[in-house]
Amino acid sequence: MSYTNFNVATDSDGIALVTWDIPGRSMNVLDTKTIEELGAIVAATSADAAIKGVVITSGKDAFSAGADLSMLDGMNKTFLETKKSKGDEAAQQMLFDESRKLSLTLRKIETSGKPWVAAINGLALGGAFEVTLACHYRIASDNPKTRLGVPEIKVGLFPGGGGTQRLPRLLQPQDAMQMLLKGDSIDLKKAKAMGLVGAVVPAADLIPAAKEWIKAGGKAVAPWDEKGFKLPGGGVYSKMGMQIFPAGNGLYRSQTYDNYPAARAIMQCAYEGLQLPMDAALRVESRYFANVLQTKEAAAMIRSLFLSMQELNKGARRPQDVPPTKVKKLAVIGAGFMGASVGFVSARAGIDVVLIDRDQASADKGRGHAQAAIDALVAKGRAKPDDAERLMAKITATSDFNVLTDCDLVIEAVFEDRAVKAEIYKKAQPFLKAGAIFASNTSTLPINSLAEEFTDQSKFIGIHFFSPVEKMMLVEIIVGKNTGDVALATALDYVRVIGKTPIVVNDSRGFFANRCVLRFTAEGLEMLMEGVPPAMIENTAKMAGMPVGPLSLSDEIALDLVLKIMKATEADLGSQAVDQAQKKLIVEMVEKQDRLGRKNGKGFYDYPPKGKGAKHLWPGLAALVPAPVDPDTLDIEELKQRFLVVQAVEAARTVEDHVITDVREADVGSILGFGFAPFTGGTLSYIDFMGTTEFVALCHKLEAKYGSRFTPPKLLEDMAKTGETFYGRFPPKKLAAA
What we know:
It is built from 30 helices and 18 strands. The longest helix is centred in the last third of the chain and has 21 residues, at 636-656.
């Protein structure tokens, strides 16, 4: 029998080699066709007495990154259609049956009576890793890029192909729960030490070694199907179990605030499943999986953090009529922390980089930052010494602007001051080669006003990185009124090469990300002025789903930068554009108390020297703000709502102002750029899933109590009248081709 996504070849020893190799794709994915064909292969090999065992591997550079989540998106749409036509019970049964097809197929591998070996080449994540877990033995080729794991929690799901049952039966419970709840992948060294991989061999020996395990009498029985099997950490009600599960539940609550149904379901699946035989445990897992699939959190996170992000990464916003561009050499003007970091990530992507600063010593200091960054990766085993040498060979440092003559892209990353930037533009332009693109890394200054200092404004664009550049995945590309398509295409192609996710926005003060996140930090200051206790402000923000509180984030941004933004806004728009009470507090903190934030070890928090304890709120803050009100009189839910609503309203305003022209970018940008509660799917999804009518009513309630910052824009008011959604009114254009 022939298959589309697999090749099956049986050797003279009776060992079937199943090679997963989906035609026309660079990476294998678990889709409906793959699951159907894998099921047919399991049935055929199980029934064929001549086959003594099976090795499953990949014909690609990697095993697989997991499931095609658009399959689950389609499953949900079918569920809603079935519910409408046949009723809830029929729809629930359909979803349960469809969503557990992979789980049943993998259980058939496990109980086939034939030994199966997973020969893992490259990464194996999500459902693909679950395929390997169902095999009786796992062997991997020695590849430093290989990662194994179940990252489903990061898109609002959990491993529903048996992962919540097999991992806790293979590992110590704390290790299993860590993998399931955090979703982080592990390298081969760790996987081998944990027993998830039986052997690591040279790539050329992978298939022979897998076959040899079968020929040497490898058992076709999973450990948990053998009589007398005992869980690695003991049963749920054993001494170890009673230490793990109550503590794990507390940890889950403290880290998620019960905002993530999938995380709760993982705890339930493990707790209940480990008390049952495997088949019953897998049925429990499937029921929870079908339930989580129906949650708005899963729908929102799949849409934003998988489908939309994938589309944006593949160039959904790129001008299609511009030929592909390639940045071979990049210049970064301003070799401070931000500029040096941009240079570092660019060099890691294979681009030649020159760091330019006012003098050689400053430029060399920037290059030193790159050296320190790659040295840290080598020390952690994430890079080899040879990698460090190759990377540093790509970075040069100078104060001479003559080097710009052969650069394809120039990024200015100097001080956030219009006059300083104008001076740089004047100095750099004579050296630019024909066709070179010039970008500013400004975080707040409008691109149109900066472009006035540039002769050919069609070549001028904003490329706004977020700090720390090495970790932050978002890059905001700002298009001015005269920015040309070639500049936009070049910026998008460059961002794709360095492995970041781009959003394209039109010019505005603060663009998109800073417009929204500054509303979040300002709301924290508003609460301070109202007498809300600082600790309560920070904790309710985290309860709402934000990664850190607004006071902590202000410290990270740097209070002197916050003050600079306030003063620049006031100078351009007038005193009414800035809350004067908040400005007074920040002036006091920065200019009188010398509290600049984390960078000088003191802001809203005190930051003890490394190793001397954790940061803590500054006691002196009490003398600068009103006396705290009784916390018991405050509405926790309302405080949480204020943090999310004030950002979502601003996001809606950016749509009305045509700063955001693609709703996907508001959602992806808000999560990746400033950590807007991921379980909501982003700022606009937060509104859509609540319902525009209900959201606008909530806005008016908060507006009446706290002021015009909660006033919904006319666009939102109009949408609320008919219950229209952002994704309904502004459906994103689908990418023609990947």
